[in-house]
Amino acid sequence: MSLRSSVRTEKIVAAAALLFARQGYHGTSTREIARIAEVSENTLFRHFDTKEDIFWSALRSHAPALIPRKDLLDRLRIGEAPEVVLPKILEMLTDTVQFRPEVIRLIGVAVLELPEKAEALCRDLISPLFSEISQYLAKSVEKREVMEVDPILLAVSLMAMVLMDPHLSNLTLGNGSSRAHGRDAIRAYSKFWLDVLSPRLPGSSMPVSGTIGQTSI
Asked: Which of 63, 69, 113, 172 is most buried, judging by how many CB atoms fall within 10 Å of its CB?
């Protein structure tokens, strides 16, 4: 592929991601994509066979947002303490919601509008992050650093809280009521989970003293 052709492909994918994330799959036309990408519709179809091909390329182009940074991966794999690692997980997810919201919207569009093909691809995009988090949590449970809970359900809950809270909070509490952005959100999520997951003494609702410390966020 020539440099010029590569640049055009990137412009088409970027335009498509913007429109699909904003308007959905069925609400976006190839004519609109071509217009935003500043190419003709004929040129668009010289780069892609179908509109669906454009959509999947747009989703894949945003997949790096779901890849954990090396420093976080290292912390997960060596099994650092939950009060250190959980805020880092939540920070990554919060940053994704704040700075790369298109990837969340595109996954939602795929699941809702193209469900027959979405499951396998979305699993491929999300599984690496999910697997790392759930394996870390399983080890934390084994070491009794957190309460004995299902690590898979816990990983799902962690991810779902951060990804869905901004939208649900705005719907239920009114615009501007969500802690969607910045350090405040990370602190709030971290405190919630560290409080919830602190091991308890048998028959007590109080956390075991000193098992999980204060978050550094």
From this structure: 63
pLDDT for 133-148, tens place per residue?
A: 999 999 999 999 999 9
DSSP helix/strand/coil, 207: strand
Residue 45 and residue 30 in contact, taking contact as beta carbons nearer than 8 Å: yes
Tokens, residue 136: 């870390």
Q: What is the DSSP letter of 50?
A: S
User: Tens digit of pLDDT for each residue in 177-187?
Assistant: 455 556 788 88
- Cβ atoms within 10 Å of 152's Cβ, excluding its own: 15
State whether the Cα torsion 176-216-206-157 is positive or negative. Answer: positive
φ, ψ at 84 (rounded to 5°):
-95, -45
**Nearest Cα residue to 112 out of 63, 158, 55:** 55
Question: What is d(CA 92, CA 108) in angstroms, rounded to the nearest whole number?
Answer: 19
Q: How far apart are the first and last CA of the chain?
A: 46
